[in-house]
Write a structure and sequence with these properties.
6 strands; two-stranded parallel ribbon; 11% strand; 483 residues; Outer membrane efflux proteins (OEP)
Length: 483
């Protein structure tokens, strides 16, 4: 297989044009159409509330300090530590978030492949036999083989940076998946801590209720003895029976809530209900953190994973505008190919059996019913949407922090008031019972004092648990210490 002189000259001209094409393409590809992403500026505020944040009674805020990686250690509960660590390892929500992060990562890696040429190899072999049906023909054709091997390289030049913008968008989506996984970890740790505190609260409420039931039953026995001796009337006994029944009525509801709370902790740990977690919790097992971190607003913006995920969404949407613009511009593709063909397999490697080809293609959509134009507009509106969602995430995050700060300040007062009320109710009940022995007060006064003491005890337990839970909420609101 030989080439004519004109063909050789054409090949030389084509070969000389190749460097010029690549040089011009590289010069054009140094830029990328579309907006370049810039992270939103962090807020310049120094606090989360209008008024200066005062430390609550018994606790102290440290401004500018970020949440530690394992903030739950501040509660000094080994059982809570073990359960949170187990949940972070076994909870299916975290496993799904990790898998989603892997999917986004490999999609981004796959997008990089568009920057490289596409190489295709072809191989064909045929065995041929021709015959003729002409009458009286003496011509015979011996069978022969034909071999063909070829290679083709197709490379689409990223002249306008559309491919790089798409990779940028995919990388941002991978970042978003990573931040969502971190947000799931923060939320899971906070939910486990709150569920454990709620279980401890329910156990304390059940213990207080049983204590009051014991007191009510003891009092009923004494009244029944006095009724037999004629010292009290049947109305007093019936009143005490009613008080005992009301106290007992609270117990099943509390026990049902406790069982449901155990199921919740088991599910958060990634277990089935029959494989209940071993850890049980009491309020005495938790220490209220005395020194609390209070990150600055700018630190929260850079620390909270949901805010970072929203920022990554803005980045991805910004890059998609460049992808949409590049789709409207001319597309340049270079396709060099080579092929060797011969009737005998060893001849495939002879110089005269080789053939070469270089194809350059420039394509641009002339009219598509404004489809690409509208896709660009849709990408621009999607960026506005992502920016609004980012601002909404920041607003809600700051609201979470402000709510937690105000809740902790009121919790401290609520706990102090609840403890004072419980102490006063206990002292009042003791005096009323002492006076009843001497006939100074009626049974109705005693029943009211017992009911007041039960309500005060339950209120104190709930206030202490709420303060612990709101402390957990502050850690989560500030970013949860994720890495």
């Amino acid at each position: 297989m030989t080439a004519s002189g004109s063909e050789v000259n054409q090949d030389r001209r084509a070969s000389a044009a190749i460097p010029l094409v690549f040089a011009s393409a590289l010069a054009l590809s140094s830029c990328a159409v579309g907006p370049s992403f810039e992270p939103p500026a962090p807020p310049q505020d120094e606090r989360f509330t209008r008024e200066p944040t005062a430390s609550p009674l018994g606790q102290r805020f440290h401004a500018g300090v970020e949440v530690s990686d394992r903030w739950w250690l501040d509660f000094h509960s080994p059982r809570l530590n073990r359960l949170i660590e187990e949940a972070l390892q076994r909870n299916p929500t975290i496993e799904a978030a990790v898998a989603a992060m892997g999917v986004a990562h490999y999609n981004a890696e796959a997008g990089v492949g568009a920057l490289f040429p596409l190489v295709s190899l072809t191989s064909a072999s045929s065995y041929n036999l021709y015959s003729t049906d002409a009458p009286n023909s003496t011509v015979t054709q011996a069978p022969f083989s034909y071999y063909s091997k070829g290679a083709q390289i197709s490379y689409t030049l990223d002249v306008w940076g559309g491919t790089r913008r798409n990779i940028e968008s995919l990388d941002a989506q991978a970042e978003n998946a990573g931040f969502l996984m971190a947000a799931a970890q923060v939320m899971l740790a906070a939910n486990v801590a709150k569920a454990a505190i709620e279980e401890a609260s329910l156990r304390a409420q059940i213990a207080a209720t049983r204590q009051v039931i014991g007191l009510e039953a003891e009092r009923l026995s004494l009244l029944q003895l006095q009724l037999a001796k004629g010292a009290v009337s049947s109305i007093d006994v019936l009143s005490q029976e009613t008080a005992l029944a009301q106290a007992r009525q609270r117990l099943p509801a509390l026990e049902s809530l406790l069982a449901q709370q155990r199921d919740l902790l088991t599910a958060l740990a990634g277990r089935l209900p029959q494989d209940e977690v071993e850890e049980s919790f009491a309020l005495s097992q938790f220490s209220l953190p005395r020194d609390l971190p209070l990150s600055l607003p700018a630190q929260v913006v850079g620390r909270r994973p949901d805010i970072r995920a929203a920022e990554a969404n803005v980045h991805a949407a910004s890059a998609q505008i460049g992808v949409a613009i590049a789709a409207r511009l001319p597309n340049i593709t270079l396709t060099p190919a080579g092929q060797t063909s011969a009737f005998f397999l060893p001849d495939l490697f002879l110089p005269q059996t080789f053939g070469y080809q270089l194809v350059g293609n420039i394509a641009m959509t002339a009219f598509d019913g404004f489809t690409l134009q509208n896709k660009q507009k849709a990408a621009e509106v999607a960026l506005d949407q992502a920016k609004a969602q980012y601002r909404d995430t920041v607003v809600k995050a700051f609201q979470n922090v402000a709510d937690s700060l105000r809740a902790l300040q009121s919790d401290a007062r609520a706990v102090a008031a609840a403890r004072n009320a419980e102490g006063a109710a206990r002292r009042y009940l003791g005096k009323v019972r002492l006076q009843q022995k001497f006939g100074s007060v009626s049974q109705l006064v005693v029943v009211d004092a017992q009911r007041s003491y039960l309500n005060a005890a339950l209120a104190r337990v709930q206030a202490e648990a709420q303060r612990l839970s709101n402390t957990v909420a502050l850690y989560a609101a500030l970013g949860g210490g994720w890495q």
